[in-house]
Amino acid sequence: MKLFSLYLSLIIATAGPVSAQKIPNGVDAQVGKFFVDGTTLIYNTNNVPPDQYAEMESDDVALFSDILEANPNTKLLQLTSTGGSVWAGEEMARIAMDYRLDTRVSGECSSACVTLFLAGNQRVLDRGGAIGFHQNAWHADGLREYYKYWHRDENWDNPFDFGSWLYRDVQTEMHRQLSYLVARGVDPVFAIETKRERSNIWYPTRRELEEAGVLRD
After folding, report:
1. Which UniProt keyword terms apply here (predicted)?
2. Which of 136, 141, 60 has its CA nearest to residue 93?
3. Segments making up each domain of the chain, as ranges
4. Domain 2-7+20-212 - what CATH class?
């Protein structure tokens, strides 16, 4: 878990304070990626200006929590996103489970979005929609910057020390992610398949998703 939590701490530290706007009770309102429609909260990361990244971000977490607090009758979380921050997906999933929300995919929900989708009690995929899985990735430039930023605090004398820590931490992270899938009712064999190396995102069929427990009425 440290692999992601420390990395996200760096990102948050350089991104500035999180701003969150509360939505009045009982009033439909649109705030960027979020739109309240009665008892449904729509989260669509494509709904951003052209100069912004269309993905799940750390700033979304506080806003998500504030909107639910201001709209306590929310029952359904509708998702459209190709993913983004692993940390944001996990934190929003924790909040969604606390509110006992149902989840629904409209269009595509992939990568970190799936973590949030699996937080739902009932989980539905709209016809024509898709749910996508892929391995986590950490590119060379990101590894280099992470090592430069943290090597003193972590007592890494050289990149080999970092590599030794990374090898252990990746295994811990994979165990945690797989445990979450199984805890949310996903078949263990299917959960393992989500971590297989592939050249592209894996979009299972509706039948595969139903049989694996990803979709649940």
Report:
1. Signal
2. 60
3. 2-7+20-212
4. alpha beta
